[in-house]
Design brief:
This protein has about 70 residues and is mainly alpha-helical. The protein has one domain. Helix content is about 70%, strand content about 0%. The model has no long low-confidence stretch (mean pLDDT about 65).
Length: about 70
């Protein structure tokens, strides 16, 4: 089992502002950001899978919103 890292000590889990989120999605893509975060947040395969399915829905919901903002 991986040791837990405090959120403040981990830049991948730092708070994201709307503008930085748009920049990161544009630069890295929604998928790459979420994969790193999921691997840091989820300890078990089932939690990782549940989080990934939730994230896919969020990405689909954000696409039309971000298209109007960027």
């Amino acid at each position: 089992m991986k040791p837990r890292v405090p959120i403040a000590a981990n830049p991948e889990l730092s708070p994201i502002t709307p503008s930085s989120l748009r920049s990161r999605i544009r630069d890295e893509g929604c998928h790459s950001i979420s994969q790193r975060r999921l691997s840091l947040l989820a300890d078990s395969a089932s939690l990782r899978e549940q989080a990934w399915h939730a994230h896919k829905g969020l990405c689909l919901a954000l696409k039309p919103i971000l298209a109007h903002v960027t």
